[in-house]
Design goal:
Elements lengths: L2 H40 L19 H25 L5 H20 L12 H30 L7 H20 L5 H24 L8
């Protein structure tokens, strides 16, 4: 086998790997969305407009949402690894680190019981949740912004830049609106942010499934 054939074969295997990462990530994102939607119906004891997702981690069906959180964290990590492997523009390690921060923080959030209010004494888990949840949002949305900007610098991915960057800006702005505008219904505003992030992640997974051959020149 010639050196050219060997290089082409390696590139085809690499592309197959990242496409598989995109496929599994897309399935995990869909699983998370389906679980969240189902819990809005099944947990009729909670007001979905006023109650954020973290409240659904406690009580009936809580393990379902914990598993869905882990699946979503895994999807974020897979997308981070996939795009790190296929895009050669500067900033790859920083974007990988941001997404991994978001994924790890999300996994921790799933295991740490949130503060349910009502004058209860705060537990260690509640403190951990209060730190990990914002880190999950912040790490992921910053990773989305930077990754979107990297699309612009790579001719093979430039077609994805406008929609990816625009949606990432919307997600980042919505996140800060949720954090700063305390009069907004906490459940509705948080779920709107989550839905926007899921839309970006799903698009990124779809694009990764269609990854072109990599130019290693």
């Amino acid at each position: 086998m010639s050196g050219v054939d060997l290089t082409v074969g390696m590139e085809h295997r690499e592309r197959a790997l990242v496409r598989n990462l995109g496929t599994v990530a897309l399935v995990a994102i869909a699983w998370f969305l389906a679980t969240v939607v189902a819990l809005q119906v099944l947990r009729d004891d909670l007001d979905w407009i006023r109650v954020p997702l973290s409240f659904y981690l406690v009580g009936p069906y809580g393990p379902w949402l914990q598993f869905a959180y882990i699946a979503l964290a895994s999807a974020i990590a897979m997308l981070a690894i996939g795009y790190y492997r296929v895009i050669r523009t500067p900033g790859g390690k920083a974007v990988l680190s941001l997404f991994m921060l978001g994924a790890v923080a999300l996994a921790i959030t799933a295991q740490a019981e949130t503060d349910l209010g009502g004058g209860r004494e705060l537990t260690l888990g509640a403190y951990i949740h209060a730190i990990s949840a914002p880190l999950a949002f912040l790490g992921t949305t910053l990773g989305m912004l930077w990754q979107s900007w990297r699309f612009r610098a790579d001719p093979r991915w430039r077609r994805c830049f406008a929609i990816a960057f625009g949606l990432a800006v919307v997600c980042f702005g919505a996140l800060w609106a949720h954090a700063l505008l305390r009069d907004l219904p906490r459940g509705l505003s948080q779920k709107a942010v989550v839905l926007a992030i899921l839309a970006w992640l799903a698009l990124a997974a779809r694009w990764l499934r269609q990854a072109p051959l990599m130019n290693r020149d």
